[in-house]
Amino acid sequence: MSVIAEAPDTAAGAGRDSGPRPSRWRTGYRTAIRGLGVLRRRAGVVGAWFWLMLIALLAVLAPILPLADPAVPVGTPNLAPGARWPEFMGTDQLGRSVLSRLIDGARPSLMVALISVGLALVVGGMLGLVAGYRRRHAERVITVFIDATLAFPPLMLLMALAAVLTPSLWTLGIALAIVFAPSFARLARAATLRLASQEFVLAARSAGASRLRVMIRELLPSVVVPLLSYAFVVMAMAVVAEGSLSFLGLGIPPPAPSWGGMVASGRDNLREAPLLVFIPAAVLLLTVLSLNAVGHHLQQRTGNARGANL
Amino acid sequence: MAGTGKAHLRRSDSVVLSVEDLVVEYRLKGSGDRVHAVSGISLDVLAGETLGLVGESGCGKSTTARAVLGLPRPTSGSVRFDDVEVTTLSEREMRRFRPKAQMVFQDPIASLNPRRTVEDVVAEPSRIVASGTRAERREKVRTVLREVGLDPDVMGSRRARQLSGGQCQRLSIARALVLDPDVLICDEPVSALDVSVQAQVLNLLGDLSQKRRLSMLFISHDLAVVKNVSDRVIVMYLGKICETARPDPLYARPAHPYTAGLLGAIPVPDPGIDPRGRRTVQGEPPSPINPPSGCRFRTRCPFAQKICADEEPEIREIDDNHYVACHFPLTHAAAA
Amino acid sequence: MTRDGSRGTASSAEPERLLEVTDLQLRLNSPRGPVYAVDGLTLTLDRGVTLGLVGESGSGKSMTCKAIMGLISDRRGTITGSVRYDGTDLTRLPLERRKELWGTELAMVNQDAGTALNPVLSVGCQLTEGLRWHLKLSKREARDRAIELLTHVGIPEPKRRLGQYPHELSGGMRQRVNIAIALSCGPSLLLADEPTTALDVTVQAQILDLLADLQDEHRMTMILVSHDLGVVAGRTDFTAVMYGGRIVEIAPTKDLFAAPRMPYTRALLASMPRLTAPSHTRLRATPGAPPDLTKRVPGCRFAPRCAFARDRCRSEEPPLVDETGSGHLFSCWYPDSGTPEETGATLATSGQTLKEDA
């Protein structure tokens, strides 16, 4: 919008006489560049949403789509893409359909991301809310917990958990949730602190609202907004983490497909069939980029809205 | 100045709110210094009366208001609504008591939850108290909105950020009135508003207090505003009461040097008066972390003597219903 | 605005014109579209004169100051019209040239003394910066001059203050430091934008006195912006009332308060609670709210709230004219509308004011 508002101004300015013309021209140029940036960002966000919807839709519909069984060979191994329909992405080293495995592999990746982020959001958000509003003892206990968790190297934590627990969607999700929860708690606490000092909280208290009611009805609706937009960014981290863990063999056990696992198993004959690594890696990359783009966009929007209201 | 004493309290049956020896102190985070925000304030409000509380920033007027509501509870002292001591009530009992006193705040935006519509803002208190059926509550909300001059059909579904400052304050007043409180505490309710809008809100408050026979504790730094709405005025300085009287005699014949200086410092919209020729107060208020001994105003008082540092003046009646806490109150022959 | 001879203060026979603002328009960019913050403002000021600029929030008074200073970046908005300062049109000067004038010719004191100072630099550092840059003083000279300035604005222990940081000072002290910084390079025009709004009344009186003293001493021209008619009344030669981005009435201060002609000025005066009026005096409130500056509607901007508006007011914008030739300009088709006691009352009460505590 700033572009539209400013363009005529610079045009009007350029029409005037006297010295400052080069600088005005430069401003116009800068405006134009900024305009391109805005457009690109918008297009990026739209594309990101589109990609995420597509992946989510395919993952959900995977069982009913007319695809080959991802665990069973359908043809010769290492078939190049485009050679066969509907397995247009070719086959892997065991002759299983890459397309089926990609789509099926989206399910654990996204499930782990959803479980971990969902748990982290709820638990971390609640802890942060309580720490921000109750202060004193609750705050002290929770901040110590947050700091302790943040101080523990996440990879070690994950590997330790993977060693103790049998890897599954849920154990992975819970392990990652433990890693992510402190950041949500911190964010929630900061948002709560900012809101709790506002007079509408005092107004609710003076009408006889209990502290619990204040937290749920007055604070929570506003605290949740920044948390949700942050959740997308963390979801990107979760997808990466799941991929890395599967790559290291700590993720979902084979033969169930997952993106990280596909990269890991394709790595052995990278020279002959580079696409076996490249395709899942590209899908992973696009998904993570999209999640980040959407998350940043939402953060910006809610941030602006906050600035306008408060 | 140093209002110890309770000589100005009234022994009347119609006292709705009575505060005695209210003390609020808290420690600063970090340094741990003790802030003496309110140091022994006593006041009372009669039914249907508006008590104005005036003073400069840091004098403890807002802290007093919040302590009266128990948000947070005072360090010591007593607060009684209709002869019920509320400082000793449990959290649960206190909650049931809260609807009796409601508050209107200074910041028109921050005092409204940005995620609520106008109707929701007003409906929330009655939901908390859970009085009446849903339909009754809704009707009540609409009545109160109309009472403060907001059309529920037009404004009802808007959000706070879509309202002007004046409309926000009307909404805050509606929210405070929906529980039919006995006492309305207004903490700088018009300070953030422009004069033309300020006049609307002041007139509204005046009408409401009359129509509902509402007792009000009206807090402001603006002496002209306080004079306009109050039946009685208390002047505060650094956590203490300096002087209290009915507004007309107080403004015409201030007895405390601080009151006189404060009145002299107010800019008047009359070019015929040279602001340089008026009595005002020099210097800046001392820190409430380490308030002066004796009379707290002595460090800025032109008439301060040794006794002012040694002995805290006690509040006493110098004229009918005119009380002052000063060793050397101004007599009006001398001031003229 | 100023007219020869109408000034009370003694001055040379030919008053020097310092500032001439012609048809100044400031259009700010906002997400909701252009905001006409200042809309066709014309003003002249002679040397040594004080002009009070009053209006409610959003009337454009602060933006007028910023536009005169040239503090609006191309990104934030566009300025049209001209601001002639001592003969040069500031709006056409490149930024580099304007920067040279800031501090040495034009200076500004803001409302928010806290944020106007850099929190991580010491008072001394901020005070000497301008001195060293504009006046090319040595470090030693700048320091001596800074101590002198701080003493001048009434700050005790100036030497110690130089090493202090803004957060160690009270609001009043910070504003004094701001004034010292503004005056450090001897500007001819001081724009004081609500310099005392954030301060307590007792401190406000001290700061306003200080500004008046300094102005007399340096024969500075000053624009004192305030939302409070009281602040302007005793301390200015001329008063301009702004509404909706325009000046709606401007006159020698005494004339304006004695006989306001424009209904908005009267409404403003009538809606102020007075110290002299008895308690519970009903205030004359103006209904409605100030105009939305993103929309430009025909006619007088005050018409929607004006009790005396007629058809012409809603269709045709009244010009700012001097009907009587007395230097009292106002823009209203039907001046002096309303009952005589409405204006009479405010004046009668303010006339007998405060004699008792003077």
Summary tags:
heterotrimer, A: 310 residues, mainly alpha, MetI-like fold, disordered N terminus, disordered C terminus, B: 336 residues, alpha/beta, Rossmann fold, eight-stranded mixed β-sheet, four-stranded antiparallel β-sheet, 12 helices, 12 strands, 22% strand, globular, nucleotide-binding (chain C), ATP binding (chain C), ATP-binding (chain C), transport (chain C), membrane (chain C)
Which SSEs are present, and which pair or pack?
The complex is a heterotrimer of chains A (310), B (336) and C (358).
Chain A (H helix, E strand, L loop, with lengths): L1 H13 L6 H41 L36 H37 L1 H16 L2 H11 L4 H28 L2 H8 L4 H37 L11 H8 L8 H35 L1
Chain B lengths: L14 E13 L6 E13 L3 E5 L6 H9 L6 E6 L2 E2 L5 H7 L3 E4 L13 H12 L4 H14 L4 H4 L9 H13 L5 E5 L7 H18 L2 E6 L2 H7 L2 E6 L2 E6 L1 H6 L4 H9 L40 H5 L5 E4 L2 E3 L7 H4 L1
Parallel strand pairs in B: 3-8, 3-9, 6-7, 7-8
Antiparallel strand pairs in B: 1-2, 1-4, 4-5, 9-10, 10-12, 11-12
Chain C lengths: L16 E12 L6 E12 L3 E5 L6 H9 L7 E9 L2 E2 L5 H7 L4 E4 L3 H4 L6 H12 L4 H14 L5 H5 L8 H13 L5 E5 L7 H18 L2 E6 L2 H5 L4 E6 L2 E7 H6 L4 H9 L39 H5 L13 E2 L9 H12 L7
Parallel strand pairs in C: 3-8, 3-9, 6-7, 7-8
Antiparallel strand pairs in C: 1-2, 1-4, 4-5, 9-10, 10-11
Helix pairs in contact in C: 4-5, 5-7, 7-8
Main pleated-sheet profile of chain C: 7 strands, mixed
Q: What fold name goes in the CATH topology slot of one domain in chain A?
A: MetI-like fold
Cα end-to-end separation of chain C = 31 Å
Oligomer: heterotrimer
Tertiary shape of chain C: globular
Note the beta-strand portion of chain A. under 5%
How would you write the strand order of the largest sheet of chain C?
6-7-8-3-9-10-11
Q: Give the number of DSSP strands of chain A.
A: 0
The rounded Rg of chain C comes to: 21 Å
Average residue pLDDT of chain C? 84
- Radius of gyration of chain A (CA) equals 25 Å
Number of alpha- plus pi-helical segments of chain C: 13
Concise synopsis of the structure shown:
Chain A has 310 residues and is mainly alpha-helical. Chain A is built from ten helices and no strands. Chain A has a domain of 212 residues: MetI-like fold, CATH 1.10.3720.
